[in-house]
Amino acid sequence: MSLQPASTEFAARAKSVIDEYKGLEGPLLPILHGLQEEFGYVPGESVPIIAETLNLSRAEVHGVITFYHDYRSHPAGRHALKVCRAEACQSMGGDAIAAQLIQALGIGFHETAADNSVTLEPVFCLGMCACAPAAMLDGEPIGRIDAEKIEEIVAEVRS
Question: What is the span of the domain harbouring residue 36?
């Protein structure tokens, strides 16, 4: 995550989002959501602005961003594929499914394809344990993933 000084235009956009939520009780998460909605990710350049506004350390802000898997520190691909890595999915072959997806997409977790088609993200429980192994593509759940579904997922993100 880059913590370079922010450009004037960027700082104005970020400050506008921060100002919108800073008056709320517990404003950090709404601010992070707002920034991600505005920019598509939470830019590292926003960390010092958030920290100063909320009287937090940069480390505290960075820690929250990296703790929650839904916050991105860089732009995502056109599609977001979240693969469940929790125990129920692992017990139903999730490790093999994850390895097959990584191989088929040619990227690892927390990576975006060179053509910007997809970002692959691990998540720890989608709440679909009865349909394990599971994933979520652009917010749509996919359960009981097998080799055929992997082919469908790859075709969808590459189209």
Answer: 8-67
